[in-house]
């Protein structure tokens, strides 16, 4: 059966993405947030969704394991992928920020040590400002870096800011607005054009009216 394969980033973004797809008229009857399954199907519309880690979404799409995907803009900016970015879905909104101690703004005339999960975005940002940096690549709990003296500041995704606050940190500056994007494999955008175009048009309509239907997963 010729399914359209969609890769979604696991976690909160997957829930938001599935809400969008259900609002488009698709149905994944066995999906629930607590499920440990990673693949769900809409057999009537021949749609299959696969839940993967966020950084893997564009990898799946680029290599044809998925036809389209929904992933945060931060992932697309951090590493360049050979995919088409089709649509800003305006969900999963957050900011990429410079953060640190309130009373310890670095002297940017000197080299600054920055802890982050996003070394490429961070390097590009500070390079454009002609600020010298040593970038410490981290994989988790980035907010610990200035607390233990590993870095002067951090660059990270901030939603509510509660985690920063609980660890005695504040936002120094917002540098990027992040939201979920619809991406497509360059080959299957042609071979499955009509199917993908139907999804694009449906999603565009939902984005224009301000988001998915309320309680769509209830």
From TrEMBL:
The keyword Nucleotide-binding applies. One of its GO terms (biological process) is L-histidine biosynthetic process. It comes from the Bacteria. Keywords: Amino-acid biosynthesis, ATP-binding, Cytoplasm, Glycosyltransferase, Histidine biosynthesis, Nucleotide-binding, Transferase. It catalyses: 1-(5-phospho-beta-D-ribosyl)-ATP + diphosphate = 5-phospho-alpha-D-ribose 1-diphosphate + ATP. Its EC number is 2.4.2.17. It holds the Pfam family HisG. Residues 54-204 form the ATP phosphoribosyltransferase catalytic domain. GO terms for cellular component: cytoplasm. One of its GO terms (molecular function) is ATP phosphoribosyltransferase activity. It is found in: Cytoplasm. CDD domains: PBP2_HisGs (cd13595). Pathway: Amino-acid biosynthesis; L-histidine biosynthesis; L-histidine from 5-phospho-alpha-D-ribose 1-diphosphate: step 1/9. Heteromultimer composed of HisG and HisZ subunits. Catalyzes the condensation of ATP and 5-phosphoribose 1-diphosphate to form N'-(5'-phosphoribosyl)-ATP (PR-ATP). Has a crucial role in the pathway because the rate of histidine biosynthesis seems to be controlled primarily by regulation of HisG enzymatic activity. Belongs to the ATP phosphoribosyltransferase family. Short subfamily. Lacks the C-terminal regulatory region which is replaced by HisZ. This is ATP phosphoribosyltransferase. It comes from Alkalibaculum sporogenes. The lineage of its organism: Bacteria, Bacillati, Bacillota, Clostridia, Eubacteriales.
């Amino acid at each position: 059966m010729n399914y359209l394969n969609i890769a979604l980033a696991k976690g909160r973004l997957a829930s938001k993405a599935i809400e969008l797809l259900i609002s488009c008229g698709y149905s994944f009857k066995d999906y629930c947030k607590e499920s440990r399954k990673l693949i769900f199907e809409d057999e009537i519309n021949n749609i299959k969704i696969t839940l993967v880690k966020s950084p893997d979404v564009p990898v799946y799409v680029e290599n044809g394991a998925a036809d389209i995907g929904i992933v945060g803009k931060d992932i697309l900016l951090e590493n360049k992928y050979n995919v088409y970015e089709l649509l800003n879905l305006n969900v999963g909104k957050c900011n990429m920020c410079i953060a640190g101690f309130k009373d310890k703004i670095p002297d940017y005339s000197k080299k600054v040590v920055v802890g982050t999960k996003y070394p490429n975005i961070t390097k590009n940002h500070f390079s454009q400002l002609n600020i010298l940096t040593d970038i410490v690549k981290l994989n988790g709990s980035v907010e610990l870096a200035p607390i233990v003296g590993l870095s002067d500041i951090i660059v990270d995704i901030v939603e509510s800011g509660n985690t920063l606050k609980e660890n005695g940190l504040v936002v120094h500056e917002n540098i990027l607005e992040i939201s979920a994007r619809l991406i497509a494999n360059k080959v299957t955008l042609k071979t499955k054009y009509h199917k993908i175009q139907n999804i694009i048009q449906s999603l565009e309509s939902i984005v224009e009216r301000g988001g998915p239907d309320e309680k769509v997963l209830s």
